[in-house]
Amino acid sequence: MVDGGGGEPESSDSMRTFGAVVQALREYKGLSREGFGNLVGLSKHTVASIELGRRMPDPDFAERAEPVLGNTGALRKAAPCLARQPGLAAWFRQWARLEKQAITLYTYECRMIPGLLQTKAYARQLFVDELPPLTDEQIEAQWAARAERQQLLHERPNTAYGFIIEEHLFRRCTGGEEATRELIDHVLEIAQLRNVEIQIMPLVQESHAGLHGPIRLLEAPNNNWFAYNEGQMSGQLITDRKVISGLQSRYARMRSQALSIQDSTSLLQQMRGDL
């Protein structure tokens, strides 16, 4: 199954927990979603979205709902804690949750340096270039979320991380020469971790199995594999075994086509010296 995530609304653990409490109280009172909605001025569809954590309740929702659901005070106390999950695109969050438990994570990237390997200066340039433009607060939130994800490389030493990155991504000098020097130094440092393998796909490559675009593959603790594809303002979580098998074959072929780990390190050092 290929799950399109482009239309997934913003959500968070607090929204899902709040929604579950609303649902439990409503069912305890013996009310249907439609019946409850009529009493608080909402459609049954809106009630469902709130209960499933897909919709942020209106500011006065708790005050309207409390008398209907027994005046327990639970909703009044929980409402101030509601918050959307900042920094991560809505369509990416399901994959980000899987990342936290992965035992294997493979990434091929031809558009930009993978987020797990970016520096703040490099990432900031990407955020500044976003259209529609982001506010300073949004930029900081996105970097904070990305920096938190990067801790996985250090906090999960038993997870195997593999990266295949196109050479031209470094030669583009996104953010300028100083940002690129810092980026290469950072990637070389990460490459020293025992659980990380970084390979560079050279500019000149007669045979290339990755021309269809980026690939992300992930093995969960139960040994199930997932894949993820991302495009313009959307993403897809892939669980179909046949599709994943094809992507695994492409990634395996690219590992043989890319430079070896040692040669990749040498090329990065050479590019660093050329700046």
Automatic annotation (TrEMBL):
Domain HTH cro/C1-type, chain residue ranges per copy: 22-75
Pfam families, A to Z: DUF5753 (PF19054), HTH_31 (PF13560)
InterPro entries: Cro/C1-type_HTH, DUF5753, Lambda_DNA-bd_dom_sf
Name of the protein in question: Helix-turn-helix domain-containing protein
Organism name: Streptomyces cylindrosporus
